[in-house]
Amino acid sequence: MRVGLSEATVCMLMDRFAPS
Hints:
The chain is mainly α. It has one helix spanning 3-17.
């Protein structure tokens, strides 16, 4: 797995868990 994927996943999760 690449670091880029991890960062993208975190961004998506954050958006889903705490949508602004």
